[in-house]
Amino acid sequence: MIFSWVYEKEETTLMKTFLRSKGVSKSLLATIKFDGGSIWLNGKERTVLATLEKGDKVMIRIPDEGEHETTVGVDMPLDILFEDEHFLVVNKPFGAASIPSKVHPRLSMANRVKGYYQQQGYVDQVIHIVTRLDRDTTGVMLFARHGYAHALMDTLLRNKEVDKTYRAVLSEPVLTETHGFIDAPIGRTEDSIITRMVREDGKQALTEYWLDKSYPDGQTVKIKLHTGRTHQIRVHFTSIGAPLLGDDLYGGKADPDMLRQALHCESLAFVHPISGEPLKIEAPLPDDFIKWESRQRDKEADIRVGTTI
């Protein structure tokens, strides 16, 4: 894969300094040097020690990654929301883990994406997961199609330049404000390596929410995370007495329409780090959310009729 730029500053600089400013890491430079890539300055192959002047044209060729990894490709449905030569965004169903496990080595989203890459005959078949979701969380999941794109997205994430929003159903209608924050540190529970809880000695965690709709048996909310702690949304809403509907791990109510925690990654927005194009990618609400809300609206109607009578 080839990338090119024009150096536009007045002062001179080294090639390696310029490439670092473009997100080309030391490890990627090593790959370019030893695995068949190349660096070009004004049409001539050069090293990272070359000096750049204003107007110089820089080009790098990154070698193909192939498929040198252990992830097994499988032919399973893949709901693609966006794809270009650098990124793949899919709508993850519930019940699918992000990565393979010993118990389920072939059922993850990574397996599905690997199978898709194989079907398409892509030269880069290494799986680069940028944003993971819990097994039973649905919605937008971002993959980078090569290592350089992955590194660029990691930088955006560290700089908090990726705007990700979630939708959730709370099992108790406790929210009274239309907009608010839950600012509470999160740490491990004493008796589990899986569950988390709000605790004073935990890591700082901040969740922002907007109340969407209140129903007889719960509330729907839009959520934005300002930190990325494990189970943050689930733990924070449990801490205020409103665990997510269906979240049996954190005490959420069971519901016939919601056979998992009611959490959906609704959208992902960022400026494409290569094209510069602003992107906002959205995943539609899943069927279980839609069925639950429909049943709640019917219940509201029954309550109004009963009140009128």
Automatic annotation (TrEMBL):
| UniProt domain Pseudouridine synthase RsuA/RluA-like: residue ranges | 86-238
Pfam families in the record, alphabetically?
PseudoU_synth_2
Does the entry feature the keyword rRNA processing, yes or no?
no
Q: What is its EC number?
A: 5.4.99.-
Q: Which reaction does it catalyse?
A: a uridine in RNA = a pseudouridine in RNA
Q: What SUPFAM superfamilies does UniProt report for this protein, alphabetically?
A: Pseudouridine synthase
Q: Which UniProt keywords apply?
A: Isomerase
Instruction: List, from the UniProt record, the residues annotated as the active site of this protein.
Output: 134
Q: What does this protein do?
A: Responsible for synthesis of pseudouridine from uracil.
NCBIfam families linked: rluA_subfam
Give the family this protein belongs to, as stated in its UniProt record: Belongs to the pseudouridine synthase RluA family.
Descriptive protein name: Pseudouridine synthase
Q: Which organism is it from?
A: Trichococcus patagoniensis
